[in-house]
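Researcher: Quick one. two chains, 602 residues in total.
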Amino acid sequence: MATFLIRRLAASLVTAILASIVVFLLVRAVPGDIVAQMLGQAGDDPRTAASLRAFFGLDRPVHVQYLDWLGSALTGDLGTSWNQGRPVAGIVLQAFAVTLELGLLTLLVATLVGVPLGLLAGVYEGRWPDHLVQAVNVTGLAAPVFWVGLMLLIGASAWFRWSPPIMYRGPTQDLAQNLEILFLPIVSLGILQAVAYSQFVRQSVVSAMGRDYVRLAIAKGLPMRTVVFKHVLRNILIPLVTFMGLILIQILGGVVVIESLFALPGLGRLLLTSIQNRDFPIVQGGLLLVVAMALLVNLVVDLLYTWVDPRMRR
Amino acid sequence: MATAAGASEATETGSGRRLLAGARRHPELVLGLVIVALLIFTALFPFALTGHSPTDVDVAGALQPPSDEHLFGTDDVGRDIFARAIYGTRVTLSVVAGSLLIAAVLGGLAGLIAGYAGRWLDMGAARLVDVILSFPPILLGVVITGVLGTGMVNLVAALAIVYLPVFFRIARAGAIAEAGQTYVEAARALGMPEPVILFRHVLRNVLPLVIMQYMILFPLALQIEAALGFLGLGIQPPTPDWGAMLEQAKNYLLIAPWMSVFPGLFILTAALGVILVGRGVQRIGDAG
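Model:
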């Protein structure tokens, strides 16, 4: 177990470092750096530009810039935002808190809606509840998340004369208003994830229903309720938890559009505006955080599997 | 329309009757095929479906609700939304289909060679692909279009880069599995050159995996294309594109909701059609 853990950790670390190199080079490939943008069309004085580049450290070779950045990043210092003048770590974490709250609440809603629907469809495989759930699933998979958000905004305004508050408030500032703001984003993201969930649960249930232990339980005359909740559900719980991890990654990565639609100050929108403003330190720090989160969740999922199923340890 | 004609021709033969029986057993697949056929028809012959121009501006007739004259209403500069959605079919779908095709060919070939050749070539390529896959696709799309700038060519390039690793993985896994098969050994024993074994035999067995993956990714790529358009990073107006139409629409969300409703319905329908075909094909594959 220990060697497996070490090998797995080392692989994640290598991927993270390679990813950071990719991020670093990608960001520097953006045409028109911060200096060009600050000076605009008026300032093409090469001396001003050169001194500004030196100020931002852009005059050094790329690999020196990278190693310098990586060294600081390892100590938790992600540099200073070029546009806001504040430490990147603070800005990125603050935005990430918003995205994480949105992601976790969406996960909660998606689980509460998706799992029962999947169970229902799986238990009644081939009959009308199954067909109904499948039809909903396919439509949900096909609908663009941000368009669902647009439709919800239109619907809420037309039928309930309600629009979400414009100013964002954190959960510690004003929980009621925070949830009011997050309500529509959660629903629009939640539909897609609930659908993905119910597809997965249905598939797991269908394959579990054909297994000997389930057929024995049914043959013993156990009530269907006991069979489903005690035997089937328990056996699909582990894949379910790991699937939860994958869904969380998907939500955290996919919120860019929803955050900009609903004007939420989350990580996705921060990255989008920072790319547009050429604020490299924020883009680097933010992308690094996203990749690290994805690797972390994948690692936990892998370890969970290995812990439950020793056959996975090669 | 195109499929209805094709189906009535086919019923005259015996195989046609079998086709009809098959269609009854797979209603999902039939619905999907009908949608896809309609989309292809729309993409090829948009002028057959609307007399309006997708780009003609009429400021006096801006933001009109749906009517007999303008089926889906008009946008903020008075362009006919139905015409834009119809003409947008070709733009949006060819961007998605084209970028996925590039990703499938390049990623598939690279994966095929890496998986078949193995050793350091495989190790290096697989690691690089892992790195790209550790980025969420939509974020990667945002960053790449940020780097390359907006426009159709850059959008296609961005989507191709996002999905290239996925095809690489699939083709690589397929090639590794095939490389150990007896027929490869037999071909080698017969003195067949390696490239011939790879491209004539292994490729033939890996290709179905790649095609299946193409169908699975199509609706996802369509959504990302639309999302990038919605963020203003994709196709730029006045070229009609479903995602970009929604970007324009969000500023008039409550004044002119029709601007948001219809382009989204087109995206949903197109994705639905491909998903249904994919599921139908998969089900037939599982049964047979």
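Residues 81-117 of chain B form the longest helix (37 residues).
Researcher: Thanks, that's what I needed.
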